[in-house]
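Notes, p. 3: input format for complexes.
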Amino acid sequence: DKANYRHFMAKEIHEQPEVVGHTLARYVDMATEQVAMPVTLPFDFKDIQRVSITACGTASYAGFIAKYWFERFARVPVEVDVASEFRYREAPLRKGDLAIFISQSGETADTLAALRYAKSQGLHTLSVVNVPTSTIARESEVVLPTLAGPEIGVASTKAFTCQLMVLAALAVAAGKARGELSAEDEGRLVHGLVEVPRLMAAALGTEPQIEKLARDIAKRQDVLYLGRGTSYPLALEGALKLKEISYIHAEGYAAGELKHGPIALIDENMPVVVIAPFDRVFEKTVSNMQEVAARGGNIILMTDAKGAAEATIESTVTIILPDMAAAFTPMIYAIPVQLLAYHTAVVMGTDVDQPRNLAKSVTVE
Ligand code: M6R
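Output follows (365 residues plus 5-amino-5-deoxy-1-O-phosphono-D-mannitol):
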């Protein structure tokens, strides 16, 4: 049931600190702050030359964020594909390498077909699923469950952040197994993960500000989302979320791609959501913001206190998220991104939990 919320989506957004916390506790030893996989992995990360990640929609964006983590922490190359492309492109795969599949429902037809293909090629198959009895879970060599609980809203929210938590812990485990992370690095990263539920709860505090902002967004025709590094796939997720529940056209772009085309769209009617925690690429994103501001675009900057102090640009609205370790910002910044889509849809009066033309689980290709 919806408890006291108007929609399942609102309830599921608000549940995130709790369910992401449950997921964390399954993958991390909270006492020693070390990673602890709930199952023994049937391969050694040292033997893996390439990881392939396959999923659809929001789950594919979780995979895209995880690519940055695996490559950074474990120095292992990662390829991310949407399942509908992966299943038919006959990608050359190496026997004994690792293929990861991400799915809330565990029943998505294209993801399942991709899993069967990887298996036929002799890869180890690992799935991150929310429904433990699902077909994808049954057919995978290893299952790493997300503990999001049932997700009813068609727009994925809590499943996404729980997927990120599992993938982050797995990437740390991979880095440790491959000798790329010292005990100290591991401790620092795991501590960063342990902080996530509390920071998510703090991020929910942006809701009144976002609700106000949504009244303006609801009047717009197009919205651009920009980010760099792990904030780039989150920009893609923000655009998808807005499209699917408010029916407003939105695009996510790597901030550095702005001047290669989309900047032509910028005028005073174009809101640009910039996802930019104060991290190693922050300065670069700020210069892209300057380009937007110079063309009259309305900037909505999602950053932290340091970022807000550094970004000297007149930005229309700044949403301040808590200070945190740079590695895991997508789990926290997902919250204002989801809230913005949600409140915009509420203002527009669309069917938030059951948007037109969409199914919760896409079991046909
Ligand atoms: O059940 P799955 O995670 O495999 O579903 C994948 C996509 O269909 C799903 O994430 C879809 O994009 C959502 N509507 C996004 O909010």
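DSSP finds 13 helices and twelve strands in the chain.
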